[in-house]
Amino acid sequence: MNKMTRLDKFQRLIEQCSALPPTPTAVAHPCDESSLEGAVEAARLKIIAPTLVGPANKIRALAESCRLDISGLPIVDVPHSHAAAAKAVELVRIGQAEALMKGSLHTDELMGEVVSMQGGMRTGRRISHCFVMDVPALPHPIIVTDAAVNIAPTLEEKVDIIQNAIDLAVALGFRSPLVAILSAVEMVTPKVPSTVEAAALCKMAERGQITGGILDGPLALDNAINLSAAEIKQLHSPVAGHANILVVPDLEAGNMLAKSLSFLAGADAAGIVLGAKVPIILTSRADSLRSRIASCAVAALVARARRERAGKALV
Questions:
Q1: Facing residues of 143 across strands?
Q2: In a domain, 100, yes or no
Q3: Which residues neighbour 51 within 8 Å (Cβ) at sequence distance 6 or greater?
Q4: Mean per-residue pLDDT, 92-100
Q5: pLDDT at 284 over 90
Q6: Which residue range(s) make up the domain with 202?
Q7: What CATH number is attached to the domain comprising 177?
Q8: pTM above the 0.70 mark?
Q9: How many domains would you assign to the chain?
Q10: Distance separating alpha carbons of residues 236 and 297, to the nearest angstrom
């Protein structure tokens, strides 16, 4: 495969949305320039159809000061960020939005409403986070999970984390995505518990408990993404050297990996939360406009996949 340029990788995701209707999206508390600009620009590109949920006067004043045109966007007026999170989740629950987007409120505030036992957006699947990363040295986007939600996931929780990531990769156009279960080494040893879990997860995939992807692990990071490193270790696997999905042992490892790719390798990252009733666009204040738009594109493609699955279920 020829290497894509930095522009190509995320641009291809955005272009996949061009044939789709804009995804109705509830944007919770877009009350700083970066979050409002991201929603407005994604709307201009017809990736999402945002409903802005927050203090209406504050949002309008911000748009005017930043010279952002929100004249065609509906605003649901609520007094503060907590009310915005609750109302945005309600819009999803009553079917008026197919995606949820974080604005300038704390992640915990939004996710607290998402996972609420009364009126939240839970499903039978564990909620998890994926970074879709555009790494300049790699020929395709790569998914890192979970680096933001599950701190120390159990084996059972990792099954859902992996399934969420596989479903995401399929929605993005990967066929039978290649999943590397990461550890410090590629040999199974009881002294490193993550290697034992990796082996168990691969066996679970063989038995149909994880579907849609090809798993291998444990794999160290180098032999998961670098074919030469895999060949030196004499690893004969369809995944080694070609991974589309990197599953980390815990949040600390994932957070360090994702930030290392961003700040040391010049990667851009689109962030999304899966396992809830709709995809959740989860961005940080440090994210570029390009990353925010790519995150919206990822959510739109996931929403399309959900609609298609729902349609098949009705046939």
A1: 132, 245
A2: yes
A3: 24, 25, 26, 27, 73, 74, 75, 76, 91, 96, 97
A4: 96
A5: no
A6: 126-275
A7: 3.40.718.10
A8: yes
A9: 2
A10: 35
